[in-house]
Specification:
Helix content is 31%, strand content 14%. The chain is of the alpha/beta class. The strands form three sheets. Strands 1-5-6 form a three-stranded parallel β-sheet, with no helix packed on it. Helix 5 runs parallel beside helix 6.
Length: 231
């Protein structure tokens, strides 16, 4: 896809929140933005997790359940012995012995932190019903990208969220089911006059005896558009 900002402007969707979480804010927990409960760069995540722990433990449980998409993840908890002003979660790795199993968010890999943010954003009843995420593939391997998109589409349906995602990773496309009209893929590009243009990609037609090309492969081959043509 091209610039999400161009897509938003082209379709007159302002005012609108575009989340673009950053490792710095997800890892430190100290920063809090003016946007509640979650800032567009990941601010406020710890505070919101604490709020869910106190008021809606069932929501926190669902977030943890979805985090098991990461094979090493077992659990995380809000410590009860935090000093004043301290912001930390204890994360449990199921492969480590009990006396070494817990570490905090500063030692977690980026992929875990991004998934923690995404699942909180999709599952929490206090986050927006309609929003966007820029570059959903950040810090995620290709296979996880595809599975994440499939999981998020289910969560969006369950929790009545409508979401626009952008990506530069072809693997993300393999998590989509274009035969489901609630899941739509658009190519956003600049036409010959420099105008921002959007084109919907329809589900490929099946041909008997021919194995269909995966969306990721179709994108790489240039069948879907959205790739540079000057080189």
């Amino acid at each position: 896809t091209s610039s999400l900002g161009q897509f938003i402007a082209h379709n007159n969707l302002f005012p609108f929140l575009i989340y673009a979480p950053e490792n710095y804010f997800l890892r430190r927990f100290e920063e809090e933005g003016q946007i509640r409960p979650l800032g567009i760069r990941g601010e406020g995540l710890f505070k919101h997790l604490v709020d869910l722990f106190r008021t809606q433990p069932n929501v926190l449980h669902e977030i943890k359940t979805n985090l098991k998409l990461i094979d090493w993840f077992d659990d995380f908890e809000i410590p009860q012995d935090l000093f004043f002003g301290e912001k930390r979660i204890n994360i449990r790795d199921r492969f480590l012995p009990n006396d070494l199993a817990y570490f905090d968010q500063r030692s977690a890999n980026e992929g875990f932190l991004y998934l923690l943010f995404y699942f909180t954003l999709f599952i929490s009843p206090k986050t927006p019903r309609f929003f966007a995420i820029d570059n959903i593939d950040n810090a995620l391997n290709p296979k996880l990208c595809a599975k994440l998109i499939s999981t998020l589409t289910n969560l969006a349906r369950t929790h009545k969220k409508q979401v626009i995602l952008t990506t530069h990773n072809p693997a993300v496309l393999d998590g989509l089911d274009l035969t489901n009209d609630n899941q739509r893929l658009f190519v956003v590009y600049r036409n010959a006059d420099g105008h921002t243009t959007t084109k919907r990609v329809m589900p490929p037609k099946s041909i008997e005896g021919v194995t269909p090309v995966r969306l990721s492969e179709a994108f790489i081959r240039g069948y879907l558009g959205g790739l540079p043509k000057n080189f």
